[in-house]
Prior knowledge:
- The structure holds 3 protein chains of 3 kinds.
- Helix content of chain A is about 35%, strand content about 25%.
- By secondary structure, chain A is of the alpha/beta class.
- In chain A, the strands form 3 sheets. Chain A has a 6-stranded mixed beta sheet, sandwiched between helices. Chain A has a 4-stranded antiparallel beta sheet with strand order 2-1-4-5, covered by helices on one side.
- Chain B is α/β, with parallel strands linked by helices.
- Chain B contains 13 helices and 11 strands.
- In chain B, strands 6, 7, 8, 9, 10 and 11 form a 6-stranded mixed beta sheet that branches. Chain B has a 5-stranded parallel beta sheet with strand order 1-5-4-2-3, sandwiched between helices.
- In chain B, helix 5 runs antiparallel to helix 6.
- The longest helix of chain B is centred in the middle third of the chain and has 27 residues, at about 135-165.
- Chain C has helices spanning about 1-5, 15-40, 45-50, 55-90, 105-120, 125-150, 160-185, 185-195, 205-220, 225-230, 235-240, 245-270, 275-285, 290-315, 325-345.
- The chains are: A alpha/beta, B alpha/beta, C mainly alpha.
- Chains in contact: A-C, B-C.
Amino acid sequence: MSVETINLTWEIKSKRIVDEVSLKINQGEILTILGPNGAGKSSFLKLIAGDSTASDGEIKFDDIPLSNISIQDRSFMRSVMSQSQEIAYDFTVKEIIEMGWIDRGISDYSKDFEEAVKKISIECSVADLLEQSFNTLSGGEKRRVHFARTLIQLWRPSGSDDPRYMFLDEPTANLDILHEQKMMRLIQNKRDEGIGILLILHDLNLAAKYSDQIAIFNEGKLLEIGAPRTVLNEETLSKVYGLDMQIEESPFRINYY
Amino acid sequence: MRFFLISIISIFMNLSWSDCSMAKDSSKTVIAGGSLTEVVYFLEQEEKIIGVDITSNFPPATSELPSIGYVRALSTEGILSLKPSLILGEDDMGPPLVVEQLSLTGLDVRILEEDHTSIGILRKIECLSEVLNTKSKDTLSKIDLIKDDINYLNELAQENKESGIKVMLILNMQGTSPIVAGNGTSGDGFIKMTGASNAANKFEGWKPISSESIISYNPDYIIITNRGMNSFPDIESLASTTSLKFTNAAREGKILNEDGMAMLGFGTRTVSTAIKFAKIFSK
Amino acid sequence: MSSILSKKVHSLKFINSFQTGILALFVISTLLILVTSITLGSFNFSLQELLNDSNSLDNIVLLEIRIPRVLLAAFVGASLGLSGASLQGLFRNPLADPGLIGVSAGAALGASIVIVLGSGILPDFIFGTLILPISAIIGASLVISLLYLFTQGFGYQGITYMLLVGIAVNAFASVGIGILTYISTDSELRGLTFWTMGSFGGASWQLIIPALIIISLTMFWMIPSARKLDLLQLGEPEAYRLGVDVRKLKFKVIIASAITVGISVSLSGMIGFVGLVVPHLVRLIGGVNHNYLLPGSAFLGASLMMTADLLSRTLIQPAELPVGLITSAIGAPFFLWLIFRIRKT
């Protein structure tokens, strides 16, 4: 089971922002997209999330074309986290997290609701913030709250084998190093539960440490895809980022100057 | 808009437009319209009045009576709370839905058609004297006096017609441009009663007009209501600071002011006021 | 997958017990004010007359004048409160009031256009109860759509921008009404100026019953979308990702607001600030989620409007004050306070 793109292309004003990208996000796997600003990473995420429509190519969720899946059904199988907008009204943190709870109309699910919110709040270290107003939080705290919301959206009773995917655009932005590591470990846990995860990251070492696969984007094109140690080589990275790169093998570490 | 909607509905209503038959009970009368109040006082039937609208400001004694608000914005319940037996209204009484509600309660509602001529005034007086059943010798002789006045006015008017005097009547000043009586207005009717012609005869209704049109109308006399004069200390400053200064009337000091209801109410006072102006114009 | 998802067995309400209590209080106070409004007025009823003679003046005033008027005020208040809350949710902007942003003016313009152009053509009954409200609804929905187009993508940052567009729309509508005013006759003109201040005078059963039915249906149609309006506060893309068909939701809010505002305006004129003040009070009292906010705004709107109308009927009795004058007198300072508060945060 996977999310698959075939020659996915997005053209705006005859400029190809995403250029014939074919890749697979497998269940139980973390795929990280790396690349410089303007490489088309976020645009690619918008396409597979269904925010925007591609000019050409295909997107399939478990072999079903995305266009054949209803807006509601999409929300049951994938959650998306991106840079969010300000919120005009004073919702509490709890209310924001609960917004991820999509009413499935099934009592089996509904009875677990309170429990799920509690558990995930603890996992994301936001349990102490629940009654606060969302607008008073720091940037990092807001990230964690939105992450908790994305997790709630994909919450299932244990034993469920529904296919699920998470698309996360720089989830660790604004986080201190403790919460960064915590969140990455949490993402790994979710992978282990069988969720397919697409990450966009800027920190090469973070990507190397936590990803199962890495895709390198440049100028809208998928340059390379594969295991971190094969894809992350000095030659490719120097070319893409225009910086001198040096790789230490043990422990694996990328230095740049 | 409601207003229009309702005026459409009101076509179906069986309101007594200018029904002058004697009222069954006129002991508790509410009046919406200053001219009607004036006439009822003229007929010396004021003890029958239990409420008047705010345009009923003559004679001053009316201020002692309960006010039912503005003639076009009446409240059904407010009027009914006075428990009237008869309601007299001018034809601009409204809003129409309220008028409809009033008549639906089974009340005797009389609406008198407005006709901006001296005959219209006479008819109004005669109609009200029928409705209120005041056929005493006293009132009949009073009506005869009005008839004499009207005859006198008509003689004066005839002279003014021959001399072709043009008059402009101003309701008030909107900034420096005046709101002027066009065709079909009460102001137009008043000017014609004096035998003069309305200088502003190129449009219908009350409209603000520009300095240029004032010059092109070039009236011999300008009449302004006292309310319109409120924002000016005296006639001289009105004549010198506004667009009126370009007219013959301003240059020759022929701007006159007068109580608005005395001219435009078309009650009993309108006749004597018209005589007063007709005399001025014939000088 | 979709088979288990489409089953509706049990839904969460997303409203807490405190809010449920507040809503219950709103309902009770609405009923109390309803009874008070029906009891009080310039006309004093005698119980004896009411009971003994079904054709007495007291009965006519109570049944044909007082009760329809109070009900109309309640429903118009509920409409304005609800549409204010929905529009503020749709635009994610706490200053979106049907009056301020030109929706009421759009409805007024729509109504006045057909009055001038069409009143002679169609049978009067159809015109009064059908064409007039419909054209007001069309006018209102055009304005909302226009506003939405202009402020799209501005989100929370678009507050001032939206008010500016609202000023322009209001100006445009007043030009339109101004032109119509100019070509209308003397007596219509004075009626128009009064109408812009709003009034519930002259409410009768045959006029309000169709309106009340449509307004109620629209409310029942609108309120179940409350949860989706919550999600919309995260931004349109986020709402979509959470499974909300954003286009459908926007369409629903626009149409529902246009219907309620359009009908209200065609029956009672433009009554300002209720749609602004009411949702704010409701939020201050109990929270911002729409499952609480939408019904809360409807009930508080009804309570406040009945109170304003009660004041308009009794303050200078037997005459009456235009009700719009009272709501604006309360609403305008509130609006200033709100702007001041938003500037500070």
